Amino acid sequence: MTRLRRADTGVQIHRAGWVIVAPNTVLRDGYLLTAGGDVQEVGQGRIPGRFPVVDHGPGALLPALVNGHTHLELSLLEGMVPFNMGFRNWVRELIRIREEAGPARLTEGAKAGIEALKTAGCGLVGEVSSLGLTRNLLYESGLAGVWFREYLGGDLPPDVSTGLSGEGDNPGPGPNHSALTASLAGHGPHTTAPEVLKSLKEQTRARDLTFGLHLNESEDELEFLTTGKGNWADFLKERGIDIETWGLPAESPVAYADRLGLLDERTLAVHLIHSGANEFEVLRDRGARVCLCPRSNAALHGRLPDLAGMLKAGLTPCLGADSLASVDSLSLFDEMAFTARSYPEVAPETILSMATLNGAEALGLADRFGALEPNRAAVFTYLPATATTSKDLLEQLVHGAFLQNEILYDG
């Protein structure tokens, strides 16, 4: 049985047949010396004899996984919205079902989604909330990460900054001292008015917070932003959104976001399935972070992002599971396995980086999470591996050799 756990506050040694300190640092017969809930020392071989030892077994300890992009408020909708109706109609049907469900049922679905995250080895999450239902749920769960309050349309509520981290009702550390940050997201440049997007970005920039943004996710978005017309323009008009002042057409979605001043080192751009080399260079030059959701992209759009091109351009993408409205699980093990199958040329350590360190960096929490290095949080998963080499271990991990095992969370 595998178990994601947080080390006790007392001094302990946690040993295993393997310790994955970081994707490029794998120790055989390794151990972690922990105290105060943090890693104090990493080693291998002979264990210091003066402290209590927790022997996890011959398998591997690895850092808690990072789900860089979720919509937990949609967890109730698992299997309810068909994928074969086109993206615009899928969105329309999702909105209808969500409105019919109501806040109480959506909240219960979100609770189940959080448990699914925890039971799949996730310790950090980038949660995007358009209804505001999941903030307290995440705080109470003990998960770390960023809770993004998302805005769409042409009007910005006057109380948009209430409760942002650093002022007002800041969630701060949750149970077990997990770091939870509250921030803002504009849904995307195809759904949110440019003045609203700029205001949201300015508020997060002033507080040094991560800003979330869906970008270049669909053919409808691409057509709308580069022509100012098309099915998506009609859809926005149906919903009463005035697009006449949006400054379209644009060269590309990324160019448009850059023109609005949305891209910098504290921006997390999600999806990018229609982006290419020129846009990757802009994102890299601005220092923007990128999150990919390959399973969701394949299901909704029949298309995958150009991961090889992103890596060649010097980007360091992270992974997200998106929502249960578009995938059949929130597991990063599932996401890694799909990514490994879809991009066989990408090294296992790169894929593991996408699910750990890259995600922690994208959410602004790499000083505490993403690796089992000294002075970072001692939050880890034990996997019952049977590998004989570190290469074999990483291959098994990212290809889903452990998916048949039950992963439990011990907060």
Descriptive labels:
single chain, 411 residues, alpha/beta, Urease, subunit C, domain 1, TIM Barrel, 2 domains, eight-stranded mixed β-sheet, eight-stranded parallel β-sheet, 13 helices, 23% strand
Brief synopsis:
The protein has 411 residues and is of the alpha/beta class.
Describe the protein.
Helix 10 (332-342) packs antiparallel against helix 11 (348-355) and helix 11 packs across helix 13 (390-398). Strand 8, helix 2 and strand 9 form a beta-alpha-beta unit. With 411 residues, the chain is of the alpha/beta class. The chain is globular and about 70 Å long. The protein has 13 helices and 16 strands. The strands form two sheets. Strands 1, 2, 3, 4, 5, 6, 15 and 16 form an eight-stranded mixed beta sheet that branches. An eight-stranded parallel beta sheet has the order 7-8-9-10-11-12-13-14. The protein folds into two domains: 2-63 and 371-410, Urease, subunit C, domain 1 (Roll), CATH 2.30.40; 65-362, Alpha-Beta Barrel (TIM Barrel), CATH 3.20.20. The chain has helices at 87-119, 135-141, 194-206, 219-227, 231-238, 253-259, 277-286, 294-301, 307-313, 332-342, 348-355, 357-362, 390-398, and strands at 2-6, 12-22, 25-35, 38-44, 53-55, 60-63, 65-70, 122-129, 144-151, 180-186, 211-215, 267-271, 289-292, 318-319, 379-383, 407-410.
